[in-house]
Amino acid sequence: MTGYIETERLYLRQWQASDFAIFAEMNADPEVMKYFPKLLSATMSDVIANKCQQLIKDNGWGFWAVSLKDCSEQIHAFIGFVGLNQTHADLHFAPCVEIAWRLRKDFWGQGYATEAARASLDFAFSELALDKIVAFTAVINQRSQLIMERIGMTDTQDNFYHPALNANHPLAEHVLYKITRQQWSSRD
Ligand SMILES: CC(C)(COP(=O)(O)OP(=O)(O)OC[C@H]1O[C@@H](n2cnc3c(N)ncnc32)[C@H](O)[C@@H]1OP(=O)(O)O)[C@@H](O)C(=O)NCCC(=O)NCCS
Description:
Blueprint: E1 5-6, E2 10-13, H1 19-27, H2 42-59, E3 63-68, E4 78-86, E5 97-103, H3 112-127, E6 132-138, H4 142-150, E7 154-155, E8 160-161, E9 173-180, H5 181-185
Parallel strand pairs: 5-6
Antiparallel strand pairs: 1-2, 2-3, 3-4, 4-5, 6-9, 7-9, 8-9
């Protein structure tokens, strides 16, 4: 494996062919997709995985495939993605880079998303020398906001309505968190 990030328990790496079917299963799981407007078909899921793979190939960073270092059953088994992405141009705070995460349900509650998110922020500030990173999610997605807080991001209080959703959709209102390079380097 080349061009990967290693943490205590994880690899953040390029996507491989065997990840795609597992990713499609995640994207068809109503619990994983509870805070997204709809479940994804296997075809749509593959489109996204291909895009993640291509962006990492082109740029050297992106939404990395996350796998466990210590996995007796499957070496480097895929547990989801965590990483960085250019925010969609439709969002009022674009252009900037966001951090995001999505893990298989079986791997929630073990701190993996937080561990991978910290490594992603470290990469963003040390390797890419970015000035700030944002994160956003539906107001009702508390689990995701807990990660934002654990990794030292602050709530901008600048909630916004996602342009891809009707304003009265239950997922439309989003929180916007951010962290600057200065905040990251002066963390405890
Ligand atoms: C968002 C999501 C990644 C959060 O997963 P998570 O398991 O809650 O987050 P983490 O992996 O950081 O784990 C934190 C939990 O592990 C616990 N934990 C256990 N062992 C740990 C360890 N060694 N180190 C750190 N935390 C540990 C923490 O106490 C915390 O538990 P809690 O949920 O009871 O507070 C997951 O719910 C998900 O994939 N959701 C669907 C996709 C989604 O909504 N993405 C965001 C859209 S913007």
